[in-house]
Design a protein that fits this description.
With 238 residues, the chain is mainly α. The chain is built from ten helices and no strands. It has one domain (2-237).
Length: 238
């Protein structure tokens, strides 16, 4: 009886959505707390470590953003198909086509405005082998596909709350995009970044809703996310 009650709670989309957003904050704080414990609460040592090895921040991204949706999907056996992870030919081709069109426009505009496809003012990073391979691949996955999965997972689950999953501009899409954009105000400290990222994810969300496929948006975000290009430098040292 208790098990059934527990299952009902876990299956409740309202619980899942609220818990995921709350853990977005708590999970990130837990990772930072773990860092503090490792360095015996010495802020100078920790700051120096993060500055010298910025790829360590991938753990904050993985735990805060990806962990809970992945756990719900894998361990509670939710079908990834609902969140757009499917290989049906028509949906996949549509998703890739719209997503690559967005990517192409993004690169063209970026080149016309800046004279480069992707600019990043941060200094280059490196890591010894084989850590460069591990952090390079892990970082690309977390700041690329996993971030989009977090987004589409929340869209679908929020749509279940409002019974709006069949609507293109659904409550799930609009609420998730708004919260996702607002979250970037706190994580980046930039309103511009929040609006910029929120706008891109709104388009990616529309592609997901229209095609029922998130693989195209995952590819697009991986290609246009500056953080992915930054962390991918690690693989250049292979």
């Amino acid at each position: 009886m208790k098990e059934n009650k527990k299952d009902r709670i876990i299956e409740n989309p309202k619980f899942r959505v609220i818990f995921t957003w709350v853990f977005f904050i708590i999970g990130s704080l837990l990772v930072f707390l773990s860092f503090f414990l490792l360095f015996e609460f010495n802020i100078e040592k920790l700051t120096s470590k993060i500055n010298n090895e910025p790829y360590l921040m991938v753990y904050v991204e993985f735990v805060g953003v990806g962990l809970i949706p992945l756990c719900f999907t894998i361990f509670h056996e939710n079908d990834p198909f609902y969140y757009g992870v499917n290989f049906k030919k028509k949906a996949l081709l549509q998703s890739l086509l719209f997503s690559l069109l967005l990517t192409t426009i993004f690169f063209i505009v970026g080149y016309l405005l800046q004279g480069t496809l992707m600019s990043d003012t941060r200094q280059s990073i490196s890591a010894p082998f084989p850590l460069n391979i591990y952090y390079g691949i892990f970082g690309i996955f977390c700041w690329g596909p996993l971030e989009v999965f977090f987004f589409t997972w929340l869209i679908y689950e929020t749509d279940l709350i409002y019974h709006s999953k069949n609507s293109l501009f659904s409550n799930g899409l609009m609420i998730t995009t708004l919260l996702f954009g607002m979250a970037h105000v706190f994580t980046t400290g930039s309103i511009f970044n929040a609006v910029y990222t929120g706008s891109i994810f709104l388009i990616l969300g529309i592609i997901f809703k229209y095609t029922r496929n998130s693989l195209g948006p995952m590819l697009a975000w991986t290609l246009i996310n500056g953080q992915v290009w930054y962390i991918a430098q690690l693989l250049a040292w292979w």
